[in-house]
Amino acid sequence: MKEFHIITVGTSIITNAQRRKIVGLAGNEKVADERFWEEKIDNPNFIEKLVEFVKENPKSHSAEMNTFLRVTEKKKNQDISVYFVSTRTKIGELCKVVLEKFLKEKKYNLFTGFEISGYFWESAYFNEKFAKDSFKRDISALVDRLMYLANKKKEEGFKVYFNPTGGLKAHVIACALAGFLTNSEIYYMNEEFKDIVFLPFLLYLPKGKELEVLNILSNKILKSGEEAKAFVKKYKNEIYRLKTYGFIEIDEDEGGRAFRVRITNKGKFLFEELKGAKNGSFK
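Above: the chain sequence. Below: its structure as C-alpha cells.
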C-alpha cells in the first residue's frame, strides 16, 4: 500500500554536527542567527558535506530519519511519499534541503512541503509583535492544512503517517493534533527510547445516544428556538459532552436559551469515520 509521511523538521542535523565540530562548525553557532545560516545555505559545498554527514549514520545524525527509517526500512522506497513541515528560518530551510537531498537519492517520493513561522526570521527582519502574531497564525493554519492534506491523501489511496519528532514544541503539538483529528498513524521516538512508539487515538469517541445526536445533526441544523430547546432538553448530557469536545455548536439568545444547534466540521468528519469503520460501534 502507498504511504504518505508528514514529517516535522527540527535542527538535529546541525546540533549533531556541532557536537562533533565537523563540516566547518565550531559548536557555538546560535540557532537564531539568521544571517549566519543564510550564508551556509548559499554554500553548496557546506550542504553537500551535511548530506554526507547524514549518509554516514542517518539514524544517529538525524532525529527525523531515526524515526522515519525505522518505520519504512523494510518497505519499497518507491511506494513511500514524504512531506516536510519546516520553519521559515534559514536553519530550518537548511535542514529540510539536506533531508530532501538525502531521501531523493534513496528514491523516495518528495512533495513540496509547508513552511511556517519559526519566530526567529520574523523577529530578525521585522519586530517581536509581528513575529508572535505570525507564529500563532501559522500554528492554526498548519493544523488546517495538514488535516486537509491527510484526508486528501487517504482519498487517493494512501496510508497516512505523521512523524512529529523534530521542530519546535508548538509545531510538534500541531502536527500530532492533525494526526489525531484525521485518525492517522502517529509515530514518535524520544532519544531515550530504544524503539518507535505508535501513539494511541487520544480523542474522545462519541458513543450511544451521542451518536444519535450526531446522526440527527448531520442531516439538518436545528434553527427553530422551540425545536432546539426541546432537542437540548432531550439529549442534555450527550449535548454537554459533544459541545465540550467541539463536535457540535450551540447558539444562544440573550437569555441563554438555545435557538440553533449544529454539527461542526470536526463532528462531521468523526461521525463519517465512525460510520465507515468496519469494526465501528455505529449502526
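The radius of gyration is 23 Å.
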